[in-house]
Amino acid sequence: MTMPAPLAEVVSDFGEVQGQDKLKLLLEFADDLPALPADLEEAAMEPVPECQSPLFLHVDADNPDRVRLYFSAPAEAPTTRGFASILAAGLDEQPAADILAVPEDFYADLGLAELISPLRLRGMSAMLARIKRRVRDAPENSAK
């Protein structure tokens, strides 16, 4: 499986814990979701309606060597925040090519399928798909 080192590390962290400890780790990630920069408002971000809770993302792919990802999700949505935080920790500041190489179903390796509904897991898949689409659509990448 091809994925950037930070994302592989997150997957490894989940692989080291079992059962309910996976949920605890997901909640820890939810607590660590980076705040939005002062110059970025949620209203200017793309909604991800496939998520069960309100989630907004912004992909800055102007520099294909260092793609920036920003997420906004309410504190009352810890699962969604956790998923967003996993993607932020694993993909923020990574090269566009590395992000595009991430398998669509990488989240299966987190081992959350027994603990979280398929509908919620599809939300994480939708986040990744939108990130990849924005990266592909960036002028720097579409010219290649």
From TrEMBL:
Gene3D superfamilies: 3.90.1010.10. It holds the Pfam family SufE. It comes from the Bacteria. Residues 13-133 form the Fe-S metabolism associated domain. PANTHER family: SUFE-LIKE PROTEIN 2, CHLOROPLASTIC, SULFUR ACCEPTOR PROTEIN CSDE. Belongs to the SufE family. This is Putative SufE-like protein. It comes from Mycobacterium cookii. The lineage of its organism: Bacteria, Bacillati, Actinomycetota, Actinomycetes, Mycobacteriales.
